Structures are given as C-alpha cells and as structure tokens.
Amino acid sequence: MELQFFGAAGEVTGSCHILRFGGKTVLLDCGLIQGSHRDEARNADPFPFDAVRVDAVVLSHAHLDHCGRLPLLVKRGFRGPIFAQEASCELAAILLADAAHLQERDAVYQSRKLGRQVKPLYTVAEGERVMRQMRGVRYRQTFDVVDGLRARFVDAGHILGSCAVELWVQEEGIERKLVFSGDLGQYDTPILRDPDPIDRADAVLMESTYGGRRHRDRAATVTELGELLTSPRSREGNILVPAFSIGRSQEILYQLGRHYEQWELGRFRIFLDSPMAIEASKVYWEYHHLYDEEATRLRLENGGMPLLPNLKLSRSVEDSMAINSIRSGAIVIAGSGMCNGGRIVHHLKHNLGRDETQVLITGYQARGSLGRRLVDGEESVRIHGQDVPVRAAIHTLGGFSAHGDQDDLARWYECVQNRPPVYLVHGERESQEAFAEYLGRRAGAEVHRPRPGETLDLRGLAPAPIPARKPDPDRVTG
Ligand SMILES: [Zn+2]
Ligand SMILES: [Zn+2]
Fold first, then answer.
1. DSSP strand E in 306-446: where?
2. Is 268 helix (H, G, I), strand (E, B) or coil?
3. How far, in Å, is the centroid of ligand 2 from the Cα of 66?
4. Is the pLDDT confidence value at 245 over 50?
5. Is the pTM of this model over 0.85?
6. CB atoms within 10 A of CB 74
C-alpha cells in the first residue's frame, strides 16, 4: 500500500500520482507538462508504469495540467474507467479536443519545418476516445473506484467541477484515508462555492502553487475594474480583455452582469469572442446547481444566466472579424489568456495603436508572451510580422486568481481536525519552502516536500482517530 509522487512533485504542471495497493494501480490525475519547449518535450517520455496495467484514474478537475496526458495514457493501452465530477467531464471534453487539435497542427508545422514526419503527442480521435472512459460522479457521493478503493469528491472551489478527493485505501484488512487536494480555489470566489471542509485524513497531498504569497484583495480588484469601465477613456475607445476560456472568461462576464446597472454597461456592446469560451460558458450556465448563494440568487432574479442582455456570442471567424470595424463602445473578451495566439491577437493588432483603447490584463502572463510584453510597457510589439505601436492603456488587474493563496490553503488544511502529515505537490520550490514553514508555524503541521519518484508507505502512517459522525445519507455504492 503506497503512493508514489510522480508529476508535479516540485513543479507546477503535469499533476500525476500513483496509488498501488493489493495488486492494483490507480492514478490521481494524468496531467500535461506545460511551459518551455524543453519541459513540454517530457510529455512524450515513457510513464513509470505500464499503461495497460493501470486499473483506473481519479481526476481532480479539467485543467490540462491535470488531465492533458489522458489521451496518451489511452493511446498506450489504458482501458479502465476515469472518474471525474460531472461538470469536469464536460469541461475536459472541451479542453482535450482543443489540446489535441493544437498537437495535430503543431505536428504538421514541425514536419514541414524539419522535412521529416513529426507525429503529434495524440490526435483528435485519441482525445475523443478518452471521453468514452469517463465516468461522471456527483459531489459528496462515495463510490468504488476498484476493489479496495473508495473515493468521494468534494468541492475545491477552483473552477467549475473542481474537486478535492477523499480516498479510502484497503489492503489485508487495513484501511488508510488519503486526501488529495487537487487545485484549491480562494474562499469567496464568485460563482463557485468555497472549498468543502474535510474532517479527517491519515495523510494530505496538497497543492502549493501560491503557498508563498498573499493575493491582492479581490474586492479591490473588482472596484478597479468598475473604475476602468466608467472612466472617460471608456467612452471613447474599445476595451480588450484577454482571458482564459475556462474560469476567467466566466468570472469576467459574471462581474459585468453583477454590476450591469452600477457601471452603466448598457452603453457597450459586449463580445465573448471565442468558440471555446462559449462552450465552457454553456457548461457553467447549465451546471447552476453548483453555484454559490450569490450566483444562485442573481440567476433566479434574472431568470437565468447570462446576466448581460447585450452579450454577443461570437462564434464564426466572420463574426470575429466584424468586431474589428467597431471604433468605440465594444468590450471584447477573447483568448488566448496570454495573447500568444487566438482571436485576441487580431483585436490587439487593430486597437493597440489607438490612444483611446484600454487593455485589461486579468491573468498570469508568462515570460516571453505578448501579454507579458504589454504588461512590461513595451512601446512597440510585433504582431503577424508587423510592428504595432502601443498607445493603448494597459491595466493589470491582479486579484482574480483561481488558486488559493497561503492563507486560503492553510484555512483549508485547518479544517482537517486531526492535523495529519502534509505532502506538498504542485508548486515551485520557493513557494513550497515558504508554505511548509508557514503551515508548520500556523497549524503545527508536519510538512514534507517529496521529490519526483519518491514513495510514501501508507501502512506506516499512524491511523487517525475517527471523529464521531452521523451516517452519510449521500452514500451510494457501485
Ligand atoms: Zn487547476
Ligand atoms: Zn493545476
């Protein structure tokens, strides 16, 4: 009975951990490594297990750094079930289809460039095959993963359908309870509920992306957004919002809807200019039973989501191109989030040279991306082989993170009453070190920072006392 730390031990992407017990192998996540070309090349490496012999996968949420290598796992022979929260299944289908499409396109490009055939990591067809093995599960239902392993998903408050996972592992009459945090959101995030408390565990496997920092206050960020949307400049030019398709786009729309009257947004034309963000938004609108109290109330008051009467969903390339003829009064939300590609690039090309344009940066911009160059204040940027002067105002809105900060993470851990040992994953070294020190001091936790490949003997964990608890009415088997 052991857990082996594999991906995202000591780094942020490629989440994947291996649970072995009673002759069975179960994966927690099977994510894509994202970053530089050199990092991403590691995605094609062999797994440290035989894909054919994996019995099942338990998926925490739909982000690619958690599910993006599932098509490769299936391609290499995995035929078992993949358990995920119902909304995660739908969002994963959207993300995997897009990822596979990009892999295919990149392979064509590389083949041409190198003069030999380069195969994609996986194809669109292989991405689709994953969906046939997906099994949707609701929050707070206990289910059997395989013989000897039960699991339960609870809300992680990170994106729609995101989960922390409770896992009960049995072998030769011994049971240990492991908790896998997945990615945890901030408390009081709009639309989503707060992370559910978990009362007991023998060990906690925990993300630590922002374990070393405190986020800017979200309320202050929303106020700043309102100021920008009501500024004199907003009456003259267009407003461009580069945003990731899943999570950020929906939150921006929600904030606009929530403040529709207050910010006098009726005078704008608002475009969601991204087929993928439109698909993801539909999943968000459909799964309203997962909303927090405020979103539920607003939805009922408005007779459904979206809350914006002047929202236009721009699907086709023609729809998108038509936006370029608008000189003022448009709010355009489009991908990619870091302006590396996608439709936002075209809008930037048409609007950056104009004084009256505003660009609202709402997410992380990696070094080398176009978004980062704008944030860094470059006076001219190159787009599609053309030098474009930057006369637009570039605003960075810092408080919209989907990840909990140091305080959120510690708050979540403190719900676990017996204070079990913690194993930090999904974080760079500096944030892990800072968080280990912080959690040790604040909660008296025993914190480990496992290296990739290291194993944890689950039998060796001291089993935690079980707090008295009512029988679980949600429990279902099978
Ligand atoms: Zn995530
Ligand atoms: Zn992640």
1. 311-313, 330-334, 358-361, 380-383, 386-389, 393-396, 422-425
2. coil
3. 6
4. yes
5. yes
6. 24
